[in-house]
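seq:
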Amino acid sequence: MKQINDVSIPNDANLNNRKKRKTLFTALAAALIVVGGSGCTYWELVASRYVSTDNAYTAVEIAQVTSAVSGTVAEVRVNDTQIVKKGDILVVIDPTDAKLALAQAEADLGRATRRVKGFMANDVGLDAQVTAREAEQQRIEAQLASAEADLDRAKIDLQRREALVASGSVSGDELTKIQNAHASAVANVNAMKAAVAQAHAGRSAAVGSREANNVLIAGTDVETNPEVALARARRDQAAVDLERTIIRSPVDGVISRRQAQLGQRVQPSAPLLSVAPVQEMYVNANFKEVQLTEVQSGQKVELFSDLHGEKVVYHGVIDGFSGGTGAAFSLIPAQNATGNWIKVVQRLPVRVRLDPVELQANPLRVGLSMTAKVDLRSKS
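struct:
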């Protein structure tokens, strides 16, 4: 710095330095303002519109294939990773027992049909038998009336002869004959009464047999009779069991977790394998609870997988929200009953439906890691 008349005058270099610093600070302030404004603008226009998470995994409603009948595995026609269509044969169980059971059920149905037809034929015979018993009863009752008339006549003859015995007009031999005739008439009446009682009992037995037979066939024909219907149901069940020896795929998908082995003895409900319908894949995205304030069903979601990377983008739609957090449904839920409590932000599973066309172009598998970004201002 130069001294002129004891006054200090800054040189040109210092002035230039100060100007440069001022310009630099001005540029830095302007840059900060621009960055801050850009950040606010980005947040307002872009970042605030989205919430995202990388805690997301593919899932699908896996079809577990089980045996509906017991038997020995005769064939296993698929392996793990094999692609199958709905209706394809997966496993065949030895049908020998099922065929024998069906043959027995068909025989039982035929026997039940013939038995019911016999009941209906018996009904006609029992009606005729009741009519015959009634006619027999009427005939015996007429014979009883005749025997009673004979008894009355024999009683009168005996009284007359006994009145004449004292006068000697009737011999002892004649009186004996009249007495014997009276005794015979009494015995005949008693016999007719017993026959009438027997005829009554016979008619009652015939009526009871007819009513018992009617109970078996009342209000039905051969096809609708309960005995035939039961036998038919058993036949149908045996036919279904035979059909179930051939186990088919319930859905299109990929074979997973095959457990069935040739010669294995299986029981009903025994798991044989699983079919994953990968074309119906969805994503369970676990968002933090603080992220879900504006998340709604129907909003659009962009996703990419660790398998294919960010070069393959999937487009999905939020289907709904789980009924509880993962912690709430864990095997041993957290119980914050002690005084030492630390709040942990929870995550709620959100189900995202994927586009089947995109899935077909770039297939996924169950359990793959995904990244999901929800557009909060969108609606499907």
